[in-house]
């Protein structure tokens, strides 16, 4: 789904299943972020583990443009998502 704001659009990866779909409060948190001028021109992607957090939405990621909003940095650390930069082509991904 996409959440369109005044300054950018968030691409949200979630399901349509009511049991696992995005929570209304998480949608409101994301809407507030994409409506904030600090995020103008940023690419926003929200991961499938999206859920509301105390400070900001868990699963929220974005590129940085002109400034950083400190209250959304690091709130998802330790929630189980991993990013790795690899050289060459990936032929097979194995889980350990």
Question: Which strand order spans the largest sheet, edge to edge or round the barrel?
Answer: 1-2-3-4
Number of helices: 1
Range of strand content: 15-25%
State the share of residues found in helices, binned by percent.
10-25%
Q: How many β-strands, per DSSP? A: 4
Derived from helix and strand composition plus strand pairing, the structural class reads: alpha+beta
Summarize the biggest pleated sheet.
Answer: 4 strands, mixed
Note the quaternary state here.
Answer: single chain
Q: Any idea what the radius of gyration is?
A: 15 Å
Structural features, described:
The chain is α+β, with helices and mostly antiparallel strands and about 100 residues long. About 10% of the residues lie in helices and about 20% in strands. The chain has one helix and four strands. The chain has one helix at about 25-35, and strands at about 1-5, 10, 45-50, 60. A four-stranded mixed β-sheet has the order 1-2-3-4, covered by helices on one side. The chain is globular, with a radius of gyration of 15 Å. The relative contact order is 0.19.
SSE order and pairing:
Blueprint: E1 2-4, E2 9-12, H1 24-34, E3 44-51, E4 58-62
Parallel strand pairs: 2-3
Antiparallel strand pairs: 1-2, 3-4
């Amino acid at each position: 789904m996409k959440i369109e704001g005044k300054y950018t659009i968030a691409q949200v990866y979630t399901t349509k299943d009511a049991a696992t779909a995005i929570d209304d409060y998480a949608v409101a948190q994301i809407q507030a972020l994409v409506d904030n001028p600090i995020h103008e021109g940023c690419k926003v992607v929200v991961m499938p583990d999206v859920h509301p957090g105390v400070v900001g939405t868990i699963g929220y990621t974005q590129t940085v443009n002109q400034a950083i909003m400190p209250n959304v940095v690091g709130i998802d650390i330790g929630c189980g998502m991993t990013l790795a930069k690899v050289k060459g082509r990936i032929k097979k991904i194995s889980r350990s």
